[in-house]
Amino acid sequence: MRFLNPLILVIISFSAFAQNKPVLFPEPEAIQYNPGTLQLSGISIFIPKTASKEEIFAINTLKSIIHEKSGQAVKVASSAAGAVLEYSIKEKGRHIPEVSEMSGGSNRENYKLDITSNKIKIEAQTTAGLYYAIQTIRQLIHTDGKKTFLPNVHMTDQPKLAYRGIMMDFAHGGLPTVAEIKRQIDFLALWKNNQYYFYNEVSMELKGFPTVGYRSGYTQAQVKDIIAYGKERHMDVVPFLNLYGHLHELLRSEKYADLSIGNYGHELDPRKPAVNKMLKNWIKQYTDLFPSPFIHVGFDETWETKRIADDKDAKINSEELWLQQLTFVQAELKKYGKTVMAWTDMNNYYPDIMERLPKDVIPVIWEYKPDTVEINRYLNPVLKEKKPFFIQPAVSGWGHIYPEADYTYVNIALCLKAGMKNKTLGFINSVWTDPVEPFVRPSWLFMAYGSIGAWQGQVPDKQTFSKHYSEILYPEVADEMHQAFEFLAQSNMYLNKCLGKNTNGMPRGTIIESWSNPFQPYYLKNTKEHEQDFRNARKMSEEAQGMLIQALAKCNSKDTAFINSMIVTARLMTYSATRFLWAKTICDRWDESMLARKKNDFVVYDITHVCHGLLVDVMDETGELKTAYQESWLTEYMPYRMNTILSRFDVEYGLWQKLYLKVNDYRIQNAPEHVAQQSFQELFKPDF
């Protein structure tokens, strides 16, 4: 038989698909696959003249998805009758999350999706539901050889939480370019995230404050552009401000230093009239800039005021000042119709503060440890007062070159579970950049994990998540990316066994010690005790590099910058382990020959050979890594703070270069067979 019946072709296609059904992130509320497929070659879509700009954006998104997946442009139908897409919107407007949804039962984002052999039918409550249905279609598209098709399916879907957010740090580390922020928003839209919290200390332009944010922040025009971009994708860009603490970037300036309660401190002094005069100005500007109905005002970690009250000035009542300031801020923001959110961690210092929280302020419980006891320590006081709340875990990436994977997965899972059990209003996943060095891109995997969990009410299986995530996001190189993520997680696990001891219990992870002098007695001893862990960390990060380099050779061009950043991340992890291992190897090589065997058997050659010496190894990698790091930085961030990190490479290079010169000079000044009487540390005193 030369030709197959079309019905048989459909059955064959569906059979192949049925054996390999896609994992959908987030998982829809209900889904039923039916026999048959919709072939995507040559289809046409009709855009009614009455379509709103939100509808047009959603439909154009679908056209782009089909073109990307099939390689064929979607035709424009002259009428609805000949078009493959049929959709209906029940309610106009309501494009982003609203305060009214706090009461529960919102159907704003609901949708139904029916795909048959000749039609895509979407019924949505609003254009948000239409857009989310299209994001689901993105994942349903299947390619088999040259054929691209959709399965016949019936689906109903709605989120378990009305508010699903990511908090991005724009204060501590590198400042992402506007283009990178838009890439983040596009990425988060894939997982149906609907809030993007713009964490700001003084990294936004403010009229009348010309030095605030100058070349170290965003202009108001840029912020407006970001807000509009988010709104198109049904994502509310929520201002996350600091109107009490975390204002050192302002208060270190002589012009504003008198507004602080400490000496060039971190916190404002609410007792000074000039403070609230300034805040009234700021609040007016921020509310004019951000149309979001919500505003997060921080109010966390106001330790400085408490320390001064406890140690220096008994006249200061730090708890009363905290309540006074929050009451003022809430009342001022209420004038502009804003719903205020504030963190609850100061409950740890003021145990009864929840019962005195200003009316209508929504407490936000943050806890970044994978520990139910710690979560409940902040949750229980809020529950006792029967207050509606948000819950906020974090990607544990600020303390490591690559996020601590299992720690993050479990923290997100426990916070979401506690939130769902106690009817949280919403879920916010924090992404911090405190040490400046780590790129944010390695956190994307975990940002997706939290966003997906917030929609479906429970997190995906962490054991298989990176595999399925890679299949969705990097179909051309899914296996390589999945393995790279796993190797990076393992490398960080081994580094975590070696470093992170000298951080006074703070969750700063391995990165604080990663640039320490590896020749110090403490670190040489530590390296000896953890030599195998350092070796395993190198091996795993090298394996990750191999996978990423292979992925780079055949990935979609839009992913090259991301994968390059991941390669640099893997190289940094390798280097962190190498510098400690090489310091020990150099000392051992010298001491074993000179002191133990009393024999100069080419030890200087091994350490300082101009091409292949141990010291030259590190100098080579430091120099090359600095260049690669700078290149990747500029694909993600503005130049601000880049030199803070690049200077670390310069100082690091200097350590090894100084040793190289010292050892060579010692060789020149002594006969080739000379045997040293001192250890490497004693003789050369390695230091920066």
Task: Summarize the structure in short.
This protein has 688 residues and is α/β, with parallel strands linked by helices. It is built from 21 helices and 17 strands.
Reconstruct the topology from this structure:
Layout: H1 6-18, E1 30-39, E2 44-45, H2 53-70, E3 75-76, E4 85-89, E5 111-116, E6 119-124, H3 127-140, E7 142-144, E8 147-157, E9 163-169, H4 178-190, E10 195-199, H5 220-232, E11 236-240, H6 248-251, H7 273-289, E12 294-296, H8 303-311, H9 318-334, E13 339-343, E14 362-366, H10 372-384, E15 390-392, E16 394-395, H11 405-421, E17 426-431, H12 444-456, H13 465-473, H14 478-498, H15 521-529, H16 531-554, H17 560-596, H18 603-608, H19 614-636, H20 642-669, H21 680-684
Could you explain how this protein is built, in words?
This is beta-N-acetylhexosaminidase. InterPro entries: Beta_hexosaminidase_sua/sub (IPR025705), GH (IPR017853), Glyco_hydro_20_cat (IPR015883), Hex-like_dom2 (IPR029018), HEX_bac_N (IPR015882). It catalyses: Hydrolysis of terminal non-reducing N-acetyl-D-hexosamine residues in N-acetyl-beta-D-hexosaminides. Keywords: Glycosidase, Hydrolase, Signal. Helix 15 crosses helix 17. It contains 21 helices and 17 strands. The chain folds into three domains: 30-157, Chitobiase/beta-hexosaminidase domain 2-like (Chitobiase, domain 2, 2-Layer Sandwich), CATH 3.30.379; 163-350 and 432-460, Alpha-Beta Barrel (TIM Barrel), CATH 3.20.20.80; 484-684, Four Helix Bundle (Hemerythrin (Met), subunit A), CATH 1.20.120. Helix 10 (372-384) links the parallel strand 14 (362-366) and strand 15. The protein starts with 5 loop residues before the first helix and ends with a helix. The chain is an alpha/beta fold and 688 residues long. The chain has helices spanning 6-18, 53-70, 127-140, 178-190, 220-232, 248-251, 273-289, 303-311, 318-334, 372-384, 405-421, 444-456, 465-473, 478-498, 521-529, 531-554, 560-596, 603-608, 614-636, 642-669, 680-684; strands at 30-39, 44-45, 75-76, 85-89, 111-116, 119-124, 142-144, 147-157, 163-169, 195-199, 236-240, 294-296, 339-343, 362-366, 390-392, 394-395, 426-431.
